[in-house]
Amino acid sequence: MKLVLLGTGGYHPSALRHTPCLLIPECGVMLDAGTGMFRAGEHLQTGELDIFLSHVHLDHVVGLTYLFDVQHAHPLRRVTVHAAAEELAALDSHLFAKPLFPQRPPMEFRPLAAEVALAQGGRLTHFPLEHPGRSRGYRLDWPGHSMAYVTDTTARGDADYVAKIRGVDLLVHECYFGDEEAPWALKTGHSCPTPVAEVARSAGVGRLILVHVNPLAGVADPVGVEVARAIFPRTDLGCDLMEVEF
After folding, report:
1. What is the Cα–Cα distance from 71 to 106, expressed in whole angstroms?
2. Which of 63, 65, 111, 161 is most exposed, with minimal Cβ within 10 Å?
3. Distance of alpha carbon 73 from alpha carbon 218, whole angstroms
């Protein structure tokens, strides 16, 4: 199973990174729809696409307006966006308000079910995360493959969500700040490397990839990946267009 990181930054795109968008091409599964979504058409392998939103802050959803170009590169029979009903209503009323975006791309909005069946015998579940305006994490399981996606939350080794991601082969977790900015992480509902690595260790995951990093840092490693590796050695910093086998 392969995961393609189409966007690995947070808040706004930078010269190095687009905002969050992860794709499992062979299953037609996308996690978040940030500015990196414009790249999806080059990688999709299915005629259907299911997009699961962690929440509807703009850096995670603006790519929905890019769907016309994705469809041009890779025609799709069906696109379904999954999120809470009130979040879908907000997207419909605001992101796709006529003065802002008069022609809504062809997509179906579907309230997020407690469990969703995925292609190739997979299933997706989700769990709440602490973040201003709320967020949710996802766990995806197939026979022999599993991953979790956790973004826009303040990591703690004893957080409730640790039990939800226990034992996954791959954990993709946000890491917006370096440890030196831990007070800002707490204030804004984001994470830094030491507690993220502690989450990975506590959950017994196979591999950790850090994403949703600060675009203002402007360097290749804005969070200090070696700090995380000292706690959880199987850690890598995600970068745009990185392909991860799990």
Report:
1. 9
2. 111
3. 30
Q: What are 47-83's pLDDT values in tens digits?
A: 999 999 999 999 999 999 999 999 999 999 999 999 9
Fold of 2-240: Metallo-beta-lactamase; Chain A (3.60.15)
CB atoms within 10 A of CB 106: 12
Cβ–Cβ < 8 Å for 123, 141: yes
Digit-coded pLDDT (tens) for 194-229: 999 999 999 999 999 999 999 988 777 889 999 999
Report the run of H or E that residue 182 belongs to, with start and end. helix 182-188
Tell me phi and psi for residue 74, to 5 degrees. Answer: -150, 95
Instruction: Show the tokens assigned to 240.
Output: 């745009």
* Residues 6 or more apart whose Cβ sits within 8 Å of residue 219: none
Close Cβ partners of 214 (under 8 Å, ≥ 6 residues apart):
9, 10, 11, 176, 177, 222, 223
DSSP tag of 39: G
DSSP string, 116-127: EEEGGGEEEEEE
CA distances from 102 to 32, 77, 78, 85, 193 (A): 22, 22, 20, 22, 41
Q: From the CB of residue 237, how many other CB atoms can be counted at a distance below 10 Å?
A: 22
Helix (H) or strand (E) holding 237: strand 235-237
| Summary mean pLDDT of the chain | 96
Q: What angle do CA 211, 213, 214 make, to 5 degrees?
A: 170
CA dist., res. 76 & res. 53, Å (int): 19
